[in-house]
Every structure is written in structure tokens, then in C-alpha cells.
Design a protein that fits this description.
single chain, alpha/beta, Arc Repressor Mutant, subunit A, 2 domains, three-stranded mixed β-sheet, three-stranded antiparallel β-sheet, 8 strands, 35% helix, 19% strand
Length: 164
Amino acid sequence: MSRPPKSRRVEFLPRLTYFKPAGVPLRELEEVGLTVEELEAIRLKDLVGLEQEACAEKMGVSRPTYHRILTSARSKIAQALVNGKAIRVEGGNFQVVMRGFRCRRCAYEWELPVGQGCRGELLCPECNSAEVYRTDKQGSSLFCERSPQTAGEEDAEKEVDKAE
């Protein structure tokens, strides 16, 4: 009996999950199913441009497993493009990578999938404050913290250094 496959780590969930050739009614099309982890493999290698070893590490799989996922995804996409089939992205065995956040004002903590909550645009869901920072798994800040007064003084010192 074979062991169940490990969940693949995914940092991107697509908003659009169905692609079809223009001008052909949906009822006349055959479909090709692409799993979420196959789409992630394509995104990391072909869109982001990472090496296969880095892609495998990000997805939490071995390099040969990553290569099999990528080969399968490319084959399905080629089949759809060449034979005029629709592509449906769904399912698979994956786990969405989450990032933790904490509000400086009210200390509220929450998680969002990677890619959501752009820097400077994220507001605390509890108090609506923009004083938000990322945390690690233990809840510690991932960035060195500076008070607004210290930050202003350091910026002024940098300007003086540049002028000299």
C-alpha cells in the first residue's frame, strides 16, 4: 500500500479558474483539469523565474516530485492550447501558505494567505489602524521596530550624511 501524498505548499490561489478558447460555446468544449499545485509549479518556474530547486523548496516537495508536477502541468496546458480545450483549475493536494500579522495599537493578531495584504495598505480588522506588522509562527515581529520619533531622527541623520 502506498503512502498518501504530502500536501504541497501554495502561495497563490487563482481568482479565475476557467479558461476557454474564444468563439467556441462552452458546451462544445472538452476540458483539461489543472490542479492548484500544478498552477503553482508553472507560476514559480515560468512566471517568477525561479530555479527548480528553489521552486521545490517553496512548495515543500523534493526536486523530482516538483519536476513531475511541472511536467504534468505543461503537458496539460499544451494539450489544451493545441487541441482547443478549456482549462479548469481546481482541486489537488495543497496547503495555502499563511502569514501572520499583529496590530501595534490593539495587539489583535490574524493570518492572511501570502500575497494578500500589501505593505502599507493593510488595516487591522479589529480597530482599523494602519499600524500593522508581520509576525513569525511564534508571534515575534519579522522586522526591526523603530518608534516614529527614532525613525524621524535616523532619517534626518541620513540626509545630513548624504549632504556631507
